Amino acid sequence: MSETDGGSPPPADKPARSRPRQMPMNRPFRDRTLAEAEGVNPHVALHRELPEVIPAEDAERWRGRWVEAFDSPGPLHLEIGSGNGFYLSGMAAQEPGSRWLGLELRFKRVVIAARKLQAANLKNARLVRFDAFNLARVFAEGELAGVHINHPDPWAKDRQAHRRLISEPVLTQLASYVRPGGELRLKTDFYPHVEALLAYVASPAGRHWEVLGTSHDILHDGAPWANDVCTNYQRKFNEKGLPVYAAWLRRTTLPRPEALG
Q1: What is the pTM of this model?
Q2: Which of 175, 179, 206, 246 fits as disulfide partner to 215, beta carbons 3.0 to 4.6 Å?
Q3: Are 88 and 63 in contact (CB under 8 A)?
Q4: Is 71 among the catalytic positions?
């Protein structure tokens, strides 16, 4: 049993692990949060009642069939970590010819975002409650035209680094779900995320992506893409005079990565 499992540390005569820890990818989604929150968190029942929301227990059946989950046609864009829905609703309003799917795990945020979509009468946007480290269970090869990631958790301490979303396993998998010519947009207040992304693209593993542009301060220099939407979190950094960074990638025409595990 490892330290993370609550057991004793390994004996001193055993060498330490040389490989960095990584989050487990694409295991069956056991929603322990749901079991613990049932009957306690009112948003658990409420998120199932909103037509804009696809609950976690229904998400996997849409794999390869997301075109059927929307009333409108168009390329499918995924926002990972849609939070309270500022970016999702803003982009859906700006680009009505596209379909927008927000992925979020927290019940209350899912409900708040869904209500934003309702208030704006946006029929080209929905939410799915699911874990970002289990994307292979809900998306098929080439199903996405773009992925948008805004202010992912920094997990700033070294011992937390394995929890970061901006990582080689996640980025390699995204190259399978994003079709050639599709895009990945990152906005973050944590510059090591940008460094990790650019280092990945420069490595052999990152050959499925190319850099289209970056920004060291969106407020003063602008985003590297057109038609950006300022998130609530981004606005708070702007008000404090703190920079928000951005990186813009395009999926190359190379065949999909073979390793998905």
Answers
A1: 0.85
A2: 246
A3: no
A4: no
